[in-house]
Amino acid sequence: MPVDNSANIQPLVSRERIGNSIRDALRLFIGRGRRYSVKQVSNATGVKDRVIECAMTPVDSVDYRPLSLEALVSITGFLGADFTNEWLDLAGQGAFDLPDESEPPPGMLAADVAGDSAEIARRAADGEFDADDRKHLRAVGQRKIERGMQLVAMAKAA
Fold it and tell me: Are 28 and 34 spatial neighbours (Cβ–Cβ below 8 Å)?
């Protein structure tokens, strides 16, 4: 009979790494001098203040508690893709915000996509992307993702 060694297999991402990554992401968005207070996030998501505070403490603290899946997804939905990208990179993936229900006029969408492509071409004309190019290309890439999702949403509505 074959031996099952699955008990010895370690996950790709440790509990400590994901805990630290989520904690660091929470601390970027929540707290004194940040975009939101714990109370604002709690009120917007239904996740209790203390649950958020415990997830923001160091993983080796006696006060640390990981967020439940429903709490993490609720907070993620409120804080958006920028927050999600801070911890989802552990899985080698990224996130984007889905577009709202309104569709841009086709001509405006095409012009915006062409403008972004032209900016990429201008920045690539010298054969390399320097630090300034890379800074601007991040914004271009994010816009291209958003516009791509608008196209997906339009096709879905058809």
Answer: yes
The per-residue pLDDT for range 98-123, each reduced to its tens digit, is: 777 777 888 998 999 999 999 999 99
Residue 6 domain-assigned (yes or no) = no
Determine contact, residues 54/65, Cβ cutoff 8 Å. Answer: yes
CA distance 10 to 6: 9
Backbone angles phi, psi at 67, to 5 degrees: -70, 140
76 and 35 in a common domain = yes
Total-model pTM: 0.72
* Residues 39, 134: Cα–Cα separation, whole Å: 36
Residue burial 103-142, b: 16+ Cβ < 10 Å; e: rest: eeeeeeeeebbeebeebbeebeeeeeeeeebeeebeebee
- The answer as to whether 5 is a domain residue is no
The DSSP annotation for 24-68 comes to: HHHHHHBSTTSSB-HHHHHHHH---HHHHHHHTS-TTSTT--PPP
Q: How many domains does the chain have?
A: 2
Determine what percent of the chain is predicted with pLDDT higher than 90.
Answer: 60
Distance CA 148, CA 99 (A): 10
